[in-house]
Amino acid sequence: MQIQQKKVDNILIVKPLEKRIDASTATEFKGKIVDLVNSGNTKIVLDLANVDFIDSSGLGAIVSCLKTIGNNGDLVISGIQETVMSLFRLTRMNRVFQIFPSEQEAIQALSR
Amino acid sequence: MPDTLSPKKITFLIDSKLDNVSLVGVAIRGICNYLSLSEIDTYYLELCVVEAVNNAIKHAYNSEAGHAVEINITHSSNDMTFEISDRGRKMASHCPHRFDFDAEDLFVIPEHGMGLYIIDSIMDEVTYQSDGNKNTLTMRKYFHYKN
């Protein structure tokens, strides 16, 4: 799984370049994010603009990343497509994650 | 709207590797596009089939490659039926899954066990049957087409 990264001040923006986060890629995805957290990145924007399909394994991996950060920071989501958002609503994960329409709004929220 | 009067059926067969599941997903998406289903319905149907095939690979075959997972899709005038079959370890039973958690408590938020809940939430009928050494999860979704 290819992931694009950029840093704005102390906030890391992570953008998967693959269209799917599913059972075949979830473990690798989670491993990459956990490595970034363990390297000291505790404020992360996950930009899902390129992702048009997430299954329960992919969703579980994103939850796991949030738990890895724990209370030491936050992982917020931006750029989510409406179809993928429907999965977050169905599983009520929209109550768990802060979700912003744009990367800029997500960065502003983490800068407060 | 394509002709929906006579049932149409297609069968896919994949080897039990998670890498193959996206091919099934893309095929479901193509069928749904052909039937002019909405983006959300298309996503939901792809999701249910992907979850069912993932379950067959991970639980029936213990993530071991070299086994067959069969996907039968039947489309009739007002519904689509998906039958996912394996010849591995059978599930104890299929019953509606509860899925509830405290969103305020980070460490109780589930990372697993969402697949069957998703299927039960989206599909109108879900049954699981073991016949000899063949296990089949059948999922049916009804549509209400506007004439």
How would you describe this structure to a colleague?
The complex is a heterodimer of chains A (112) and B (147). Helix content of chain A is 40%, strand content 25%. Chain A is built from 4 helices and 7 strands, in the order βββαββαβαβα. In chain A, the strands form 2 sheets. In chain A, strands 1-2-4-6-7 form a 5-stranded mixed β-sheet, sandwiched between helices. In chain A, strands 3-5 form a two-stranded parallel sheet. The model of chain A has no long low-confidence stretch (mean pLDDT 97). In chain A, helix 1 (26-38) packs parallel to helix 2. Chain A has helices at residues 26-38, 56-69, 82-90, 103-111, and strands at 3-8, 11-16, 20-21, 43-47, 53-54, 74-78, 99-100. Chain A has a single domain (6-101), classed as STAS domain (Transcription Regulator spoIIAA), CATH 3.30.750. Chain A is globular. In chain A, helix 3 (82-90) links the parallel strand 6 and strand 7. With 112 residues, chain A is of the alpha/beta class. Chain B has a 5-stranded antiparallel β-sheet with strand order 1-2-3-5-4, with helices on one face. The model of chain B has no long low-confidence stretch (mean pLDDT 92). Chain B has helices at residues 21-34, 39-60, 115-122; strands at residues 8-15, 68-75, 79-86, 125-131, 134-142. Chain B has 147 residues and is an alpha+beta fold. Chain B has a single domain, classed as Histidine kinase-like ATPase, C-terminal domain (Heat Shock Protein 90, 2-Layer Sandwich), CATH 3.30.565. The longest helix of chain B has 22 residues, at 39-60. The relative contact order of chain B is 0.19. Chains A and B meet through helix 2 and helix 3 of A and helix 1, helix 2 and helix 3 of B.
Distance between the termini of chain A: 31 Å
The radius of gyration computed from the alpha-carbon positions of chain A, rounded to a whole number of angstroms, is 13 Å
Helix-residue proportion of chain A: 40-55%
State the assembly state of the protein chains: heterodimer
Within the CATH hierarchy, at the fold level, what is the topology of chain B?
Heat Shock Protein 90
Q: Give the helix tally of chain B.
A: 3
